[in-house]
Amino acid sequence: MVRIGVLGGTFDPVHNGHLVMAERARDELGLDRVILIPAGTPMSKADQPVTPPGHRLMMLRRAVEGREKLSVSVIELDRPGPSYTSDTLRGLCRRYGDEAEIYFILGSDSLAYLHSWYEPEVIISLCRLAVVPRPDFPIPADEELDRLLPGLAARVVRLKDPVGDYNATEIRELAGKRQPIDHLVPPAVADYIHTNYLYSGGTL
Predict the structure, then answer these.
(1) Residue 4: how many CA atoms within 13 Å on its side-chain side?
(2) Residue 54, Cβ neighbours under 10 Å: how many?
(3) DSSP state string for 91-113
(4) Could you tell me which of 102, 103, 92 has the C-alpha nearest to residue 21?
């Protein structure tokens, strides 16, 4: 049985918090690989400007270079229309079949809203949820999880160590002002952002 971690997101830009989440899940759960998947048309940001997918993909590829067992998939970028987690998990299950156990990695802040996502019942039927603690967002008790979504508690795997608070909006604003961001994103990503004048003016 292959154990696969999946970390989705807009990655605008990918930052150190994303990478810590991926590597924590990899190490604590003994995952064979972790796939980072940039969203094509993120539904949660339908009314906000998003950096073109080509740039987000290039930053993500630079970020995972040399990191053990981390890779990037374009499954959502290649699919037209909105990016739904349930559709992505269906695609991964078709690709890897019954020989793969999939762990969807998310922060405890996102877990609290999982019941409001598109097809949440499908999501928890297709994967386990590897939940990373986030500051000020304790993982709810099992009873509360099942009140939010029946059967949710049994699908949650609690990771031990919290991940610090990284704010993509602040990173974009700093980059737009040409201020240092090397402490927030991998150096190769910072170089790409500055070289391509991404987030100029802090408007994205």
Answers:
(1) 23
(2) 9
(3) HHHHHHGGGEEEEEEEEHHHHTT
(4) 103
Q: Helices H, strands E: what count in the chain?
A: 8, 6
Q: How far apart are the first and last CA of the chain?
A: 41
3-state secondary structure of 70: strand
38 forms bridges with which residues in the sheet? 9
Question: Which pLDDT does position 162 carry in this prediction?
Answer: 80
Please check whether residue 67 is in contact with residue 39, taking contact to mean a CB–CB distance below 8 angstroms.
Answer: no
- Name residue 72's beta-bridge partners: 36
Per-residue pLDDT in tens (0 to 9) along the chain, 204 residues? 999 999 999 999 999 999 999 999 999 999 999 999 999 877 665 567 889 999 999 999 999 999 999 999 999 999 988 889 999 999 999 999 888 999 999 999 999 999 999 999 999 999 999 999 988 889 999 999 999 999 999 999 999 988 888 999 999 999 999 999 999 999 999 999 999 999 985 443
Peptide bond into 13 cis (omega under 30): yes
Contacts of residue 48, Cβ cutoff 8 Å, sequence gap at least 6: none
C-alpha 66/C-alpha 187 separation (Å) is: 13
Between the CA of residue 27 and those of 17, 50, 71, 162, what are the distances in Å? Answer: 15, 31, 15, 14
The C-alpha atoms of residue 105 and residue 23 are separated, in whole angstroms, by 10
